[in-house]
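User: Reviewer 2 asked us to show a designed sequence for the structure in our supplementary figure. I'm pasting the structure tokens here. Could you produce the per-position amino acids so we can include them in the response letter?
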């Protein structure tokens, strides 16, 4: 039996549109229209072993695990994700430009990098994830295709 698959999503412009207040603080995450349906389909699909879902996101320097959780709850996304797989640059001290950021995500997930998919709109970030051994997808809807390839 193969290891489970883990899908890490970028936040900004992949799952949500970030909103900032007048002081420049991240104030809200507005999910893109299809996001809830896609996450729910992934969570309930896949037969006996649906993929685990997480995030790998560059976050503002002041963002903490707790502040990001509050924003995700407000956006209706937190319950759809595995809390152990929420990886934030502001917490980790690394960004998606660092191969080690992705390597640490796979380690945290407890699966080989080849069983991880990074979904993000930025080609450079996808290339970095790929260099760490991740499968990559450019859009949340495209991830279904990538998932079928590695199942």
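Assistant: Here is a per-position design you can include in the supplement:
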């Amino acid at each position: 039996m193969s290891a489970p698959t883990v899908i890490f999503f970028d936040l900004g412009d992949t799952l949500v549109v970030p909103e900032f207040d007048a002081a420049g603080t991240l104030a809200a995450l507005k999910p893109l229209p299809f996001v809830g349906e896609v996450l729910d389909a992934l969570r309930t699909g896949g037969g006996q072993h649906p993929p685990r879902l997480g995030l790998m996101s560059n976050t503002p320097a002041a963002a903490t695990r707790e502040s990001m959780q509050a924003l995700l709850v407000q956006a209706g996304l937190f319950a759809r994700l595995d809390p152990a797989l929420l990886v934030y640059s502001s917490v980790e001290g690394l960004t998606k430009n660092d191969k080690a950021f992705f390597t640490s995500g796979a380690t945290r997930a407890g699966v080989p990098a080849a069983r991880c998919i990074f979904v993000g709109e930025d080609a450079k970030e996808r290339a970095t994830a790929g260099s760490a051994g991740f499968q990559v997808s450019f859009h949340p809807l495209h991830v279904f295709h990538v998932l079928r390839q590695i199942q």
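For the response letter, you might also mention the following. The chain has one domain: 6-150. The chain has a mean pLDDT of 94.
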